[in-house]
Amino acid sequence: MHPRMAGQGVFRQAPAVHPLLLPLVRLRNDATLIARGAAARLGRPDAPWKLTLALTWVCEQRCTHCRIWRRPLGEELSAAEWDHVFQRLGDQLSWVDLTGGEVTSRDDFAAIAQSVVARCPRLALLHFPTNGRDPARVERAAQDIVRARPTRLIVSISLDGPPALHDRLRGDDGAFASAIETYRRLRALNIETYFGMTLSSYNATRVDETVEAIASHVPGFAHRDLHVNLIHISPHFFQNQPIEDRARSPEVDEALAAFTAARGVPRGPTALLEALYLAHVPRYLETGRSPLPCGSLSVNAFVDPAGTVFPCHIWDRPLGVLADYDWDLARVWALAETRAARQEIVAERCPGCWTPCEAYPTVLSNLDRAVLAA
Ligand code: SF4
Ligand code: SF4
User: Fold this and answer.
1) Which fold is adopted by the domain 19-373?
2) Could you tell me the distance, in angstroms and rounded to a whole number, from the CA of residue 57 to the centre of ligand 1?
3) How far, in Å, from the CA of 40 to the mean position of ligand 1?
4) Most buried by CB count within 10 Å: which residue of 20, 224, 237, 248?
5) What is the pLDDT of residues 31-51, one digit of tens each?
6) Taking 50 as the threshold, does the pLDDT of residue 206 lie above it?
7) Residue 279: strand, helix, or coil
8) Mean pLDDT over each residue of the chain, to the nearest integer
9) Which residues 6+ apart lie within 8 Å of 42 measured at CB?
10) Which pLDDT score is estimated for 265?
11) Ligand (nearest to CA of 353)
12) Is ligand 1 within 6 A of the CB of residue 63?
């Protein structure tokens, strides 16, 4: 345990939801999430209901579009410290993304994820991305998380092109094959698993080829099983300012239009959310601004591995360190500095972006506008 946690209690798990009750709890938590989205315009809640938490900067891949792998290890909150954060937020949290770096590089990753499930009874969705580099390690972590019985667990495996391109963009020979194997193992566990492609001028012309390459290993794989997002620049997260913004190119516009058409009519809530995200990408590419009023610091926030709270993973605007506030994110949320930053977001004085981590809660908080504008 970290010395800061001395005397603050020990890490413990609450009992998992009974399997027979799981569908009912899922229904209740989905309803809570939708209600929270609908209520977002009525006022700012006392704490965010959606969090993106970076647990580590450790990553074994060497991506062209991301410099996280170059970051020094730095300080990381322990599992016990994260547990206190989740305990404080409790049923206020509906949606948690655990990201990195490669989250499964942490031996205690599954314990942290289990802690989210145990401490947050209203959790509708737990998501983590993985580079899929170590299929057995990801499988073990996922098995442990499933044992805690989250109402919904989604895993996305990064995949940026057909084999040779993916391996090159990831600076990692064999990365494509490992990603496929990770997908197979997670699907065998009945875990909702997708491939996630970060679109840029590096790979925009290769989307169909990527789907075909996956389908040659995963029969039946189609465009609807691939999730795409756009390359973004972030000084405090990706630290990729040296690369030029490769999202704005005619190839990306064309690829997005073709991809959206190929996905067809959305089937299910996740596909609908993604369809609404995709429908607004052209407007973001045109203006560089969030196409809908951004929900950051209204409904969502980002926390880095050392526990520093930011509005999102794009805007380098540190607001407070959780250790200084007794692990209570709601206290950082209530600071005058945080409220001032929220006003800047409303006035569009942030960098502007359209990344799924923040765009999805923004869509949920503006469903009527999102549908009408789409
Ligand atoms: S994009 Fe993901 S896999 Fe690639 S270096 Fe960054 S954290 Fe690692
Ligand atoms: S629009 Fe601004 S505040 Fe919102 S997620 Fe993007 S950079 Fe962050």
Assistant:
1) TIM Barrel (3.20.20)
2) 9
3) 32
4) 237
5) 999 999 999 989 999 999 999
6) yes
7) helix
8) 92
9) none
10) 87
11) 2
12) yes
Phi-psi region of 297 (alpha: psi -120 to 50; beta: other; left: phi over 0): left
- Helices assigned H by DSSP within the chain: 22-39, 79-89, 109-119, 135-147, 163-169, 175-188, 207-215, 250-263, 269-279, 281-287, 329-333, 336-346, 356-365, 367-373
Residue 14 C-alpha from the chain's centroid: 25
Type of residue numbered 145: I
The pair of structure tokens assigned to 171 is: 């600076």
Place of tokens 């679109």: 199
Helix (H) or strand (E) holding 226: strand 226-230
59 lines ligand 1 (CB under 6 A): yes
249 and 204 in contact (C-beta within 8 Å)? Answer: yes
Contact call for residues 369 and 292 (beta carbons, < 8 A): yes
The whole-angstrom separation of Cα 250 and Cα 308 is 37
Report the distance separating Cα 291 and Cα 245, nearest Å: 18
Calculate what percentage of the chain has a pLDDT beyond 70: 95
**Angle, helices 207-215/250-263, rounded to nearest 10 degrees:** 40
Return the C-alpha torsion angle 158, 162, 166, 168, nearest 10.
Answer: 180
Is pTM beyond 0.90? Reply is yes
Nearest to 201 by CA among 231, 229, 176: 231
DSSP 107: T
User: Which ligand 1 atom is at minimum distance from the Cα of 60?
Assistant: 8
165 vs 172: CA distance, rounded Å = 10
Residues of the chain by 3-state class (helix, strand, coil), percent to 5: 45, 10, 40
Q: How many residues does the chain have?
A: 374
User: What pLDDT does 6 receive?
Assistant: 42
Question: Using CA atoms, how far apart are residues 214 and 102, in angstroms rounded to an integer?
Answer: 22
Candidates 57, 158, 197, 236: which one to mutate for ligand 1, based on the most atoms within 8 Å of Cβ?
158
The distance from CA 189 to its chain's CA centroid, rounded to whole angstroms, is 21
Instruction: Give the start-to-end residue ranges of the domains of the chain.
Output: 19-373
Pocket of ligand 2 (CB under 6 A): 290, 294, 296, 311-312, 314-315, 345, 350-353, 358
CB atoms within 10 A of CB 188: 10
